[in-house]
Amino acid sequence: MANRKTYYLTTPIYYVNDVPHPGHAYTTVAADALARAHRLQSRDAFFLTGTDEHGQNIERIAREKGVRPQEYCDGIASVFKALWDRLLIRYDRFIRTTDEVHKRGVLKLWGLLRSAEGPDGRPVIYRDTYAGWYCPRCEGFKTEDELKQPGNLCPDHERASEWTEEENLFFRLSAYEGWLREEIESGRLLIEPAGRRNEVLAVVRQGLKDFSVSRARVKWGIPVPDDPGHVFYVWMDALANYVTALGFADDSPDYRRFWAEAGERLHFVGKEIIRFHCLYWPAMLKAAGLPVPSRVFAHGWLTKGGKKLSKSTGNIISPDDLIDRFGPDAFRYFFLREGSFGQDWDFTEDAFVRRFNADLANDLGNLVSRALTMVARYCEGKLPARPAVSPSAMGIEARLQREEELAARLRTIFVAYDALDYAGALSAVWGWIAELNQRIVVEAPWELAKDPVRRPELEAFLYRLLEAIRLLATLAGPVIPNAACRIFAMLGLSGEPGPQDLAWGRLEPGKPLGKIEPLFPRVENKEKSVTETKVPATSDGAAPPAGTAGPAPAAAGAAMDGRIDIAEFARVELRVAQILEAEKVQGSKKLIRLQVDLGTEKRQVVAGIAESYAAEALVGRKVALVVNLKPAKLMGVESNGMVLAASLEGKAVLLQPDADVPVGTKIR
Ligand code: MSP
User: With 50 as the cut, is the pLDDT of residue 548 above it?
Assistant: First the structure.
């Protein structure tokens, strides 16, 4: 055990200034899914989350509510815990910055910093006067350039910053510029996605300013020992949680195992707090002579109507309502499948309902119920005999039985989980589901069942089908843990999937199945009924110039009823393309200019999707593209092709491949 690589993963600790919203849940669900994927591979993992309870903001809110700050924090911390329970979050520890073990840890870290010298031989902590614009919501200083005028507004919170002057203790961050650059450039501190790493490096290159680590005006915090009347700056206090929670104060075995000794130390953060995690925190640790994080992944924002989901923006959706309606598995699935984890993406209820019905109710739900119903019908509800490996059979269910093929497929999925490419991991699993659904149609077990001579074939197919379902439930389990357990129960297995379930052939012939229940009964959109159109709409949103965008004009020879023959359809060249850049067309409400990769070439395409998608959220996405369309100009911008989208009540919904298909792949 002592020599095994360890995996420590953390979420930010969330402010208790309000109850949790889906943005907080997004990070926490993602971290939980990775922790579960680690455990599934028998890895030694520790998953930490918690709450950030000190600071001026909390002090003010508690005062406004007329309660003591501690009482207020206790209330909100328990709401966070209750939500995590509902969302099946299995953390190893929940740290609160008001916990004794945390306070003692902060003081120990402080002791190390207080006596430390930086690379330039000067003390890392010194006293000075600070004057600057302070945003109490960020609990951070802003430069004049960052503020929005008029009103000196914080760009993230759209609230007035306060001019603050006081004598404080400072941390000499500037002394760590060279060291930080080396850590980041060498990849010893891996910052992902790469764009964020470059952003942090650019900040370092501009020169780093020292930051204050104590506050005189705030009472609600951990008192600085040698500075009566000061408490620690809330970020210094908060960042320390990543070690204090492990028992840093007492040099505990968990601290040694997951932080002090080599292993992956991964912080999940939203992109707005990357500087604290990639600059302040590593420098503080280095100064204290402690190991630094090995990886920081800054994910994108969940937006609604194009704006960051947050209390200050006022566009909050209640996570409890979503869980009430769709259940925890669907919540987790949707959040991790819909966007690309590093990018911003826009939440809509329509998209939620569509994914629920298409992926969970139809693809997965139907596969499970069809397979189990056939075993109930043709095998009296008992698992059929385990078939021998068939080296020549090409169906996915037979290929999974071959050891190397299964190992390669598992690797693909686990590599995606490790890269925090949840959409990739899930789309690989859903690729299996699509293939299996097709295989049922091709094998037509109902036909095999009519012929007693073909009984062995029928049984072999059904056993392999159930094994494939068991394996895919195991692999999707990190994201949909309850559904995975329910599938296991229906297969007659008890408990939850674990590492032993990654091998083929675990189902025991002759054992009865459990009770068959619908996994994800279809849902309706509360506000409107969802209509999906299969006809590709013109996606430019503007009136298409004749003969360019829009359905092809009826070609000569088209049938009178508007139907076309296959040769006419074949004239349209459709391919999978990947969006490399996206930017709103100036002066247009609907148009976005895209640079897309077709594998063999790059193209500029204009699409009328700005009312449904934020430009930044599109980068990296794969889309279906009409390649051989005559060029057209939309609002003066040249477009060389057309992105296909469904038109849902006037809004564009992009069509994208269901599995990870290479760019340039032909669509037929
Ligand atoms: N307390 C600090 C973090 C200290 S960590 C040492 C803080 N708290 S917070 O309550 O504001 O939470 C911020 C984090 O919540 C983000 O970094 C992100 O992980 C998550 N999110 C909050 N809103 C979000 C979105 N709208 N979208 C995605 N994640 C979001 O900052």
Answer: no
